[in-house]
Each structure stands twice: as structure tokens, then as C-alpha cells.
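User: Show me an example of a complex going from sequences to C-alpha cells.

Assistant: Sure. Here are the input components:
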Amino acid sequence: MSLHGAINVVVTDVVTVNPLIKRFHFARADGEYLPAFSGGAHIIVEMQDGDMRRRTPYSLMSSPLDTQDYQISIRRDDEGRGGSLFMHREVRRGMKMRIGMPANLFALDQRANKHLMFAGGIGITPFLAQTAQLMARGGEFELHYGVRNRELGAYVDELEQRLASRLHVYRDDKGEQIDFDRLLSSQAPGTHVYVCGPAPMIEHVVARAAALGWPAEHVHFEHFAKAPAGEPFTVELRASGLTVEVSAEQTMLEAIEAAGVDAPYLCRGGACGQCETRVLACDGELQHADHWLDDDEHASNEKVMPCVSRFRGNTLVLDR
Amino acid sequence: MSATIEPSIRSRPVYGTLAATDAPAHLMVADADGGAALLELTAAMAPAALMRAEILYVPLASTADHSEALRALDCPGFHSSPSIDALIPRLARSIERMKMGTQIYLAGSETLIGRAMQVAMQAGIDHQAIQTEHRGSLARRMQCVHCKGITENVTTQPADCAHCGLLLLVRDHYSRRYAAFQGVNINAEDPSDVPEKEELFP
């Protein structure tokens, strides 16, 4: 049930950014500075939603140079498991919450001569922190940001002020599109590319970079899988001697934690590999949603990432 | 063909076999016998791909000079340098002018591969993104860990530091940053104990 390096925080502000996005500010309850982090890091936010305890990763968007508070932006997702709706509806200034220590799976590569950044929609958040870091400490970069329209383009005004000519905004409603091929084909050696946004955008950039000869070591992407809602199911934890019910809006990992089992995790977004668990028996279909296991491993039914993946069928037994 | 490189500690470089990629441009660098590896590589490439290739080559006049065959490929860029030292600034300029996506291939002696990789790394290219193939001599470029001097073309074990004169054990421990194997004094306790030199890196 542990939240790694749990920090008790107070919500110091909740700001409506646009009709879909709210920003949340957290400061330490004891008034001290929050831990240092680097641009691209995320935190786990713990939400006590009635009987259900959710833990969901969000990128830190505030400047790594100012840890008086942490800021995250959350886009409301009416179809999801309810975490974003809880944050939008229930969380108010002055509320006490718990967050985990920051961890970074999307760090800037410090060897780069230049950072070429692609953001789509709410995928802008890690770049807000990274660009603040680069503006303060030096480093060449350009940020290409695709938005639906001016109203839904979160932080465009602030970024225009801060980044000036380093920012390039593309509006869907004006038919503007990022010319990925042109940008990827015209970069000096030593450039690193970063992408965060909707899955199709990430997949497109990764595929085009590979096709245009970019080595994988120079291509970075933030790819938190969203843990989907689904049918309730039952999972047997052999090592713990427990049988756990996973509700429709709970992740398998959350259900395991709710049963009092201290299971490993880091990103809770199917990307980092920490929660990988051996499947001892599976009579049914594992619904894999992670980016960690490869296709063969997914097909083997021998491993599962309980932070995002689900199950449908008769029996699932895990080595946990 | 390449002399055998035995598996060793993790920092000892290992090399592969050059294989053409679909990259939009190609930068090929070789010395001596490495020229033959480039000829095998380019034989497997479409003429259109060769039109986007640049070759930098250091022939070894006495034993291994593939200059004529490489020049006959008619790539838009072919340049021959008289030594690795002379090649380095030329290579740095070629890398500076290339775009991300260009595939770099290095073939030949460990010294050529290591020093060319050093230039590429200084330009910000990840070393794992560079293809390498060892051909020819196993002679080592060695850094004395005591005086930091670099001794070229070390073929014996142990070997003399050309700078401070200490007798050095030539380790498999390799520095990509210095492009050199590390040499550590072999008889520090008793300098009168002088082990016999063996030709270990022909």
C-alpha cells in the first residue's frame, strides 16, 4: 500500500486553464521545499475517491528551478476511469493530498547539441518544465506545438512570451500541420528529438525518424499508457495467498494495493517496467495496454503489467 | 580478413559487420584493409544510394591500398588522406556538414575506428548509432595512466610508454573519450623485474 517516498502536500491553487484543462499547485504541508527534479519528470498523485484509492502519473510542468510548489495540468477525460474527473470536480484549494517522489522517464539528453521538441495538446506539460530548464541553464532548442484551436491551446500565450522565436504553434482549426519530415530532415548532427502527445502523433514521429535514418538513441518519447476502464474481474495472488476483485474503474495494481499487497511500480503508465509480474495461470484473455512488453511477450501470456493491463476470462493467477 | 578479437571485459570495444541502411545519406570512413570492407558494403548498395555517399580513406601504401577501387565507385565525395591525423579535421568538417539521419560507417584498424568515433561523439552522435567493422592490424593506441601520454601502434605486451618510459601492462580497459586502451605500470614494486615483451597485438 506504500506510495514510494510519499510527500504530504496541500493544494495551494486550482486554476481553470481552458474548458478542458485545470492546473493544480501542490506545496509541502510542512512548508519546506519540494524535492529537486529535472524537466520531463512525473509524479504519482494519490486520489482518495470514496472507497477507491487511485494513483495516477502526471508530468510536472512547473520550472525545475523553483520547487516551492509543483504544478501539473490535467485534461478532463469523460471516458476514462474517473481520475481526471475526480481531480476536476473534487479537488479544491486547501485540500490535503499525497504525492510520490518525482521520477524522470523523459529526461533531456545532456549530450545533445540541440533539442527538437514536438508537443500535441496536453502533451505540452513536460516541455513547459524542460524549456524552463533550458532557458535558465542554456541549451539550443525549438518547440513545435500542435493545438486544436487558440482556446484549447494551453499555455500558448505564456510560451510565446517565454520562448519567442523558439516556439512554433500549429492550429488544427486553421489547417496548420507540423511538417515532421522537413524538420527531421534538416537537423544538424547531435540533435535529439522529443515527442509527447496523442499516441498516433508519437507513433508517427518515431516511425518517420527511423525512416529518415535517425538512430533510436536520439529519439525520446513520453508514452504513458492510459489505464483503461473495463469489465470487473478476479485475480488470484499466489504468493500472497489472496484473491482480489478488480472493479470496472480500478486498475489491477490499485486492487492489489487495496488488498494490502505491496507491489512494485514506478510510472503507473505501462512504460517503465517496474511492475512486471509473472503470470502463473491464465484461462482467458489478458488485455495488455503497456508499452513495456514486446508483441511476443504479450502473446505468451506469461507476463503482465498490472498498472495498465486488464483480464477477461475465468482464471488469472499471478506470482505476487 | 580481421584478426580475431577475444571476448573480454565490458569496456573493450567489439565490432560488427557493416550493413547498408536505408538512411538518406552515408558517411564512410576507413583505413588500409578497412577499404575492402567498404567495397563489400557498397557492392550491396543501390547506385542511387551511392550517389548520396561520401568516403574518407587512409590507404597504407605498402600493404593495403584500395584507393583505386573506392575512387571508381564514383561517389560524389571521395577523399584520400595520408594519415589518420590528417583525416581527423576533414572528418570533423564532413560530420559538421551532414544532417541527422546520415549513417556513419567506420572500418579498419582499431585506432581508425576509435579516433573517428571520438570525432563523431564530440559532434553529439551516440556511439551506438555508428556502424563499425574491424579489419587489419590489432595494434593499439595506448594511454599511460601515469603521465597520460598517448603511445601509438603498440604491438607488444608489456609496452614502453613513449613519454615517461614506464613499462606498462596494456589493458583491455578502453576509453571511448580518449580513444585509447589504458596502460598501467607492470613493475611498480620492483622496477628491476622486467617481464619479457610478447608480440600480442600484431
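The lines above are the inputs; the final block is the predicted structure for all two components together. Chain B has a mean pLDDT of 94.
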